[in-house]
Input
Amino acid sequence: MRKKQLDVLIKIIFYILLSGLSIIFILPFLWMISTALKAPEQVWVFPPQWIPNPIVWKNFPEALKSMDFTLHLKNTLLITGFTMCGTLLSSSLVAYGFAMFRFKFREILFMLLLSTMMLPSQVTIIPLFIVFTSLGWVNTFKPLIIPSFFGSPFFIFLLRQFFLTIPRELNEAAIIDGAGYFSIYRRIVLPLSKPAIASVAIFQFMGAWNDFFGPLIYLNQMDKYPLSLALYAFRGIYSTDWQYLMAASIVVTLPCLVVFFLAQRYFIQGIALTGMKG
Output
């Protein structure tokens, strides 16, 4: 009985600590909501006022109108949609090859692939910019979209580890029945890998939706900016409309929250099952 009580006490302490940490992490988001509903003169009030009085709801429509939200949303959806399709297609095909086929130097090639993950993106940004400039791709969406069709080392690793958990007997039975390798990939491997595919889709969606550095480097015209870069327009040289910036930031953040909460079951399952077999 005493051991059971001790276990209950440990769980209570554990949940209290987790609740405290969750509150700490959610405070910036709550402050963003509070600032978005304030009048300009309330933003820098000291001590800080968490509950705005009065609540200024018009900050949201005015912020979205001033940044031409529809145009930048269209750009963001275009970039995010194509990069998700490119990443899922290319990474899953490469991962399928590494997981299911036996060929010479397979492990060496896989280690070389993983070694590219250790190279910071800042190291390659100048050579890539020179290449894209020579191709005439600067100030277009091509530098942000086309590289995704050549696979991502992290996603290839993630999917490859999940594909290894699929019994090889299924593939062998399909080959005996006359199925080709691409048919096995499309009809067996992908349907059984929904959790891992969902994890990659969520990672890529959030990465492309929130990407600021890529558009900042390659896009020069305001009408081509995605939402992440359009938010920067609220920052002025001498002053910043913080209430508008926070209101627009909340609207831009909402899709990521919605996507994660709707697909979190697949996301957690995909991460948990990945790496069970090496």
